[in-house]
Design brief:
Blueprint: E1 2-6, H1 12-21, E2 26-33, H2 36-39, E3 50-52, E4 71-75, H3 82-99, E5 103-106, H4 114-120, E6 124-128, H5 140-152, E7 155-158, H6 164-171, E8 178-180, E9 202-207, H7 216-227, E10 235-240, H8 250-253, E11 258-261, H9 267-275, E12 279-282, H10 291-297, E13 303-306, H11 311-314, E14 321-324, H12 329-340, H13 343-358, H14 364-380
Parallel strand pairs: 1-2, 1-5, 2-4, 5-6, 6-7, 7-8, 9-10, 9-12, 10-11, 12-13, 13-14
Antiparallel strand pairs: 3-4
Helix pairs in contact: 1-14, 3-4, 7-12
């Protein structure tokens, strides 16, 4: 089966998913170099509108995971440059016509693949990363682009089971057209790791884009409460990510145990931050699934996550981390102290992560199987 995978996110989940799909299908991968924070590709280095993966320096390290001869990088332009955007979309569609895929996977709502979406919508599968827009991020342009793609593409893939029924009901979808799979570990990050030193402290890490729904203030207040007891001299907290805080962050900078990196975290730094963490915390007030959790799992780090969205599917309570109630600093305090005082539990959780996600039921091979099953259903229609 021949599959074209149209993306604007080059690495994170996709590089591993395409690796797994490539063992079952003939996969052609397209991605767009537009904003470097999307996929770590510098479009200024590209000399063509569409370059082969073998010509893109940043992708060479992943030659073991994806076929660079079947990878294409689009030198992107913003939606505001509408005419050029459509021209690029037309050129991409010419490539896809030559490939003549049986099925097309698309993971975004950008205009980059507009012509291909219109031409191949009946054989398309749309990956819906966010079944519902996050609080504080309900942007008008996102709503209209989502509405367009939802209307023209019948088959949709959610990456968690918890939200399937609500998604079908809210968007009035046909149940037979809504499919589910799941994320597994973000292997690509391990290709960036340079710091493999041992940890002497208990390091708590939050990382990811700063946004109101992330619940960061609950985590900061919990940590301040813990260190104010002056009983935990080897405990630190790092908040790492770009974006604007919706509260006064300066209050927390006075504590030497708290390190705030309010900037975009490149993969090289992120890999080392996770590697040196004891536990990762996701104190979200709402969520779908989380690439943060899969990034933590790539280094076998347990995760404290709130009971929202699809997070309880990704974090098995007491096995790969702890599930706590949202919007509760007390719940975060209790969870941190439980893991701090029981290092053997932390080690057991790391072992469970390896067993479940590296070679078990939640590995990429199993996720890819669900995609292939869906491809076969689309072909039969």
């Amino acid at each position: 089966m021949k599959v074209a995978f149209l993306s604007t996110f080059a690495l994170d989940a996709n590089v591993s998913l395409i690796n797994a799909l490539g063992k079952k299908c003939d996969v052609y991968f397209f991605t767009e170099a537009l904003y470097e924070i999307y996929n770590f590709l510098d479009k200024e280095k590209l000399t063509k509108t569409i370059s082969k993966g073998t010509e893109v320096e940043e992708l060479l390290r992943f030659r073991e995971l994806i076929s660079l001869d079947k990878t294409f990088v689009v030198k992107g332009t913003r939606n505001a440059n509408f005419i050029k955007k459509l021209y690029i979309s037309y050129k991409i569609n010419q490539y896809i016509k030559k490939i003549n895929p049986d099925v097309i996977v698309i993971d975004n709502y950008m205009l980059t693949y507009f012509f291909s979406t219109l031409s191949y919508r009946k054989k398309m599968l749309l990956i819906v990363h966010d079944p519902f827009l996050h609080s504080g991020e309900n942007f008008i342009i996102d709503k209209y682009l989502r509405k367009f793609h939802f209307s023209v593409i019948d088959h949709k893939m959610l990456l968690n089971e918890n939200q399937k029924d609500d998604f079908i009901k809210y968007y009035k979808q046909k149940p037979a057209n809504i499919h589910t799979s799941f994320l597994s570990v973000y292997d690509y990050l391990r290709y960036y790791q340079t710091d493999k030193g041992s940890r002497s402290q208990f390091n708590i890490l939050f990382f990811g884009r700063i946004s109101p729904y992330k619940g960061i203030k609950f985590l900061l207040d919990a940590f301040v409460e813990i260190i104010s007891t002056q009983k935990f001299h080897d405990m630190t907290l790092t908040i790492a990510g770009g974006g604007n805080f919706d509260f006064d962050i300066e209050v927390y900078r006075q504590y030497p145990e708290i390190k705030i990196l309010n900037e975009y975290i490149y993969p090289e730094n992120l890999a080392n931050l996770i590697s040196n963490a004891s536990v990762v915390v996701c104190p979200y007030t709402d969520a779908t699934q989380s690439g943060v959790i899969m990034s933590a799992y790539a280094f076998k780090k347990p995760v404290i996550a709130t009971n929202v969205g699809g997070l309880p599917e990704m974090v098995k309570d007491k096995e790969t981390g702890l599930i706590i109630e949202p919007r509760s600093s007390k719940a975060i305090v209790d969870a941190i102290l439980e893991l701090y005082s029981n290092r053997s539990l932390l080690e057991q959780m790391s072992q469970h992560i390896e067993e479940i996600y590296f070679s078990g039921e939640k590995g990429w091979e199993s996720s890819a199987d669900k995609f292939v099953d869906t491809f076969e259903k689309i072909q039969k229609k």
